[in-house]
Each structure stands twice: as structure tokens, then as C-alpha cells.
Structure prediction request, 206 residues.
Amino acid sequence: MSGADWHIKGDYFETCSCDYLCPCIFTNMSAMPTDGVCEVAIVLDITEGHYGDTRLDGVAFVTAAMVAGPMGDGNWTLGLIIDEGASEAQVEAIGRICSGDEGGPMALMAPLVGTFAGVERAPIKIEKREMGFSITAGDLLSHGAEGVPSLPDPSETIMIDNTAHPANKRLHLAIGTHSHLNAFGIDWNDAAGGHNGHYAPFDWRP
Prediction:
């Protein structure tokens, strides 16, 4: 670990191929994914951040992964999609943070990665709604989800708390409307919806 000074925060958005509610969350990654293989796209939209002297405000990126069997067993295939508007210095900074070598939440996930499939660049467009999202990353990713309204107050989502999720321990529950991920050897196309989704603010530092 280099001990670099860094901090990023913003909004996180996810869909995965498991049925709602993903069993990985409430079993601490010990359960078998719904279909035996988990395909997942996690988007992080940085509203404020830096890595050393490199500003990261406004940079968005995707961690895309495929895992056969329980996620806690490891052997993940993982790749990064970084917004095409990011500078080379910003791309390098995001890569360092996501490698886990600089500490932070990804340091806990890094031992589970069996294959790092590389970095792609694409224009990332994010539509945030009051209770949901739609996101594209060029032709590589298109996904969206709608928050699950709570019965006492339908203007708020049901939440799950005290999870081991790297983005935030407290997550909004959502149901995927569609997910198409075609990158890093992952070919996941779900136009029917009904699969798992989450979103939350995130705040990462070493």
C-alpha cells in the first residue's frame, strides 16, 4: 500500500442478475446466486474527490463482475469501465483505488478477485430519479432500477442496514427494470426486469 492521500464520495447504483432480494446481501456472500452465476454492474458517480493532487470531481466509473458460485468463495472476474471524459491521470487514480492497493473498501474485496479483465472507456450517462435510476455506458452497459416503496411512506424506499456491501452498509432496495452488460467476457442481457437492484450514497477513503 502506497499510503496515497485520497477520498471520493458521491452516488452508487447497482443491478445484479439475482432475483430480488439478492441472497448475497443477507447471507454475507455465502449463498449461491439465484442462477448459480452472479453478474453485476456497480456504478459510482463521484461528486467530490481527489487522489493526491488529481481532482476526481465529476468522474463516473463502473465495476463489472461475474462470479460463479457464492461470492464469498472468490474467483471473481472484474473489469472497470471509466467515463471517456476522464483524463489519463484520473483513469490511473481510479484504477489504483479500485485495485485495493490504496486501502479503503476495495482492499477488502481485492482478495476475492481471480481475474482482472482490464479497463474500458465509454461515455457514461446517469439519470437519477427520486426513487430510481437509468444508466448507460456506451454500448457496454445499460441498466436501471426502481426503488421499492415502503408501506408506511411510499415516497421512501425500504432499506437494508448493517450490510457488508463496499458502497455503503445501508442500501435502498430496488428492482431492476433492465440490465445489459456486454464487456470483459460477460454477456448478460435481461430485458424483462424483476432482478435485484440497490442504490445509496458512498464515501470512500483509506
